[in-house]
Amino acid sequence: QLQLEESGGGLVQPGGSLRLSCTASGFRLDKHAIGWFRQGPGKEREWVATIVSTGATTAYLDSVKGRFTITRENAKSTLYPQMNNLKPEDTAVYYCKTELPSGTYWGQGTQVTVSS
Questions:
Q1: Residue 14 in contact with residue 86, Cβ under 8 Å?
Q2: Which residues contact 65 (CB under 8 A, 6 or more apart)?
Q3: Is the alpha carbon torsion for 108, 69, 48, 77 positive or negative?
Q4: Rounded distance, CA 113 to CA 102, Å?
Q5: Residue 74: strand, helix, or coil
Q6: What is the DSSP letter of 64?
Q7: Residues 79 and 34 sit within 8 Å (Cβ to Cβ)
Q8: Would you give the DSSP letter of residue 28?
Q9: Going residue by residue through the chain (116 aa), what tens digit of pLDDT does each one get?
Q10: CA 34/CA 4 separation, integer angstroms
């Protein structure tokens, strides 16, 4: 079964850090670009970052540049978005997404709450 699964969310104070995970099953992570999205309370889902299949190129939303970094460990079929200097406006459910020949696949999301 083709799927993505996120984990690692939680409650963190402003200025803190979290490392999320996105694990793929049923397909080769190193063959596809993976996008990260988030949906804050009362907001539309927005794109946050993309990492291409080779991992050599990443793109980030301007508001997270310099604070978020994505790495991938292909042997574990897992991406690791590292989020530093978190702000209350980063509070959202974070999702990973990929496009495969068989369709578009989203994970179930992981909640990140930034609050003191």
A1: yes
A2: none
A3: negative
A4: 33
A5: helix
A6: G
A7: yes
A8: -
A9: 899 999 999 999 999 999 999 999 998 888 889 999 999 999 999 999 999 887 777 899 999 999 999 988 888 899 999 999 999 999 999 999 999 998 999 999 999 999 99
A10: 10
